[in-house]
Amino acid sequence: MPSLPLLPTSTIGSYAPPSWFCAAVAAIERGEFGPTDREETYDDATRMALLDQERAGIDLPTEGEMRRVDFNLGFYGRLRGLEKLPPQRTLGPDGHDMRDRYRVVDRISAPDGLGILEEFRFARQFTERPLKVTCPGPYTLAGRPQGGTVYADRYAVARDMAELIRTELLQCVAEGAAFIQLDEPSAAVYPDRPEAFVDLIARAVRGVDAKVSMHMCFGNFRGRAVGRRSYAPLFPSILDCPINQFVLEYASREMAEIDLWARFPNEKELAIGVVDVKNYYIETPEDVAERIRIALRYVSPEKLWIVPDCGFSQTARWAAYRKLVAMVAGTHIVRAELLGAGGG
Questions:
Q1: How high is the mean pLDDT of the chain?
Q2: Does residue 13 fall inside a structural domain?
Q3: Of all residues in the chain, what percent are helix, strand and coil, respectively (each to 5)?
Q4: Is the Cα torsion angle 216, 218, 221, 227 positive or negative in sign?
C-alpha cells in the first residue's frame, strides 16, 4: 500500500452521477445505444468521477461505481441461477421495497466474473493515486435472492456469494489492487447473527493479500435508511472480522456511538463518516474538523481515516463535490493541528 498522510481521506464507493449520465443510462435501458456508445458513456462517467475526487484532494479515490446500479443491484445481471420476480410495490414514493428481487432456481455462479476486475483495470489508467477497490459483501449480495429449494436460508446463499467475491478479489490483487473495501450495510441492518457474519467475511477475504476494510451503514436508497441505526448490537463480535479497517456512518447520527471504540478497545483502523450524504446541508471545514476532533478522543490519529457517511449515488453532483471539498479542508485543519504549524 503506498504511503498516505496522517488522517487519510477516501470515498466510500459510488460517486454522484452527472445529469447527462442519468439521461444516457435511461436511453441505454430503452435500447437506443449501441455497444460502443454504452462503453463510451460509462468510461466518460468514470473519468469524471476520478477527476472530481482528485480535484477535491481525496488521497485514496474509488473508480466511482458508474457501471453499477445502486452499488449492488447491477451485479445480479452477471449471476446465473436467478429468476427475476415482480416488484412488491410499484406505486407511491420510491422505497427499499421496490428494489429488484430474485428467486434462486439453480446454484448461483458468475461464469464471467463480477466485473470488478475490469473496473479496476480501466480506472487505474486515469489516476496516479492509489485506488480503493470496492465490492458488495456476501451477506448484502445475498439479500435480493430468495433461496427457494436450492438454499436453506440467506446465510447459505451468502456462503456461495463469498466464494464468488473471493475469486474476484484475488484477481484484483493479482493485478495490483492493494486496498479492498467490502460494502456490508446488511450487517448493521440485520445484526442478529454476528458470529455467522464473521465467518462469511473470513470466507470472502481468505488469501486476499491486501489491506481490507468493511463499510457498514444503514442503507441509503433514495437517501433513506432501511433499519435501526445502531452498531451496538454488533459489538464485540464484529471485531473478530479478519479485516484491517471499519468504515462507519457517523455524520448523519451526530457522532453517536463513537464511544464504542473506547468501550471495546481494539487494533483495527476506523474510517469515520464526517459528511452526511443524505442531506443537502454543505458542511463547513470547521464542521468536519470538529467531528474529527470528537473521534480523536476515542481513536488514535494513526488509526483514523476520514470519509463520507456513504456513497454519493443518491446525491446531486454539485452537492457531492462541495461536500468532498469541505471534508478535505476540514481534515487539513486537524492534520495541521496534529503535526504542528505547516503540517498537512
A1: 92
A2: no
A3: 45, 15, 40
A4: positive
